[in-house]
From TrEMBL:
Protein name: Helix-turn-helix domain-containing protein
PROSITE patterns linked: HTH_CROC1
InterPro entries assigned: Cro/C1-type_HTH, Cupin_2, Lambda_DNA-bd_dom_sf, RmlC-like_jellyroll, RmlC_Cupin_sf, TransReg_Diox_bact_type
Keyword Cell membrane: no
Protein keywords: DNA-binding
Limits of the HTH cro/C1-type domain: 15-69
One of the Pfam families matching this protein, by short name: HTH_3
């Protein structure tokens, strides 16, 4: 099957799946998108080509967008690959492809390096929870150990840095726009200091 044929089949499955998820019959969807039930049936089963002037009202009726109905799927849409920054002792998995509401991004990090000596500041707040191991968090003159199952939230206008304590640690981080820009270097590397 060609790539166009695969996408066509995927769109048909999405239309049928969304209709069924809403508990709608063909008649229900047909009345909402001003097509006949027989036309919708032929579209879902592949016995009729899908025209753009039909697809737009179907998407609207199903509460989705045309883009979402026709977006293709490949491994890059599913598999999250780690980025390693050996120099900073970090491995990062970005769990959000695009920043969410208010520019928020989510990442999982494996931290293997001890806390760096230099403390930094940047606008915003940092938040992380420790999935395994212990993180040493330096906030100004304070040193705080954040252990597995604990979380930390702090103003990043306080001079700060963090690193692994007593062995590698894994954390789940939420970054605002300023935090992501600061922690994820343009080179793709990650900084343990803010």
């Amino acid at each position: 099957m060609t790539q166009d044929g695969e996408l066509d089949g995927l769109v048909r499955k999405r239309i049928r799946g969304l209709r069924i998820a809403k508990g709608w019959s063909l008649d229900d969807l047909a009345s909402r998108c001003y097509l006949s039930p027989s036309t919708l049936s032929r579209i879902e089963t592949g016995h009729r080509r899908i025209a753009l002037d039909q697809l737009a009202p179907i998407a609207r009726a199903l509460g989705t967008t045309l883009d979402q109905l026709v977006e293709s799927m490949d491994d890059e849409d599913v598999v999250i690959r780690p980025r390693r920054d050996v120099a900073h002792g970090m491995t990062t998995w970005m769990l959000t492809r695009e920043p969410g509401p208010h520019g928020v991004s989510v990442a999982k990090m494996r931290v293997s390096r001890a806390v760096p000596g230099e403390l930094r500041v940047h606008p915003g707040k940092d938040w992380f929870t420790v999935l395994s191991g212990t993180i040493e968090l330096r906030l100004g003159e304070r040193t705080i150990l954040v252990e597995t199952g604990q979380a930390a939230e702090f103003s990043t206008m306080t001079p700060h840095a963090f690193g692994a304590h007593g062995g590698p640690a894994e954390i789940l981080c939420i970054f605002d726009h300023d935090g992501e820009r600061t922690h994820l270097h343009p080179s793709g590397g990650v900084s343990a200091s803010g």
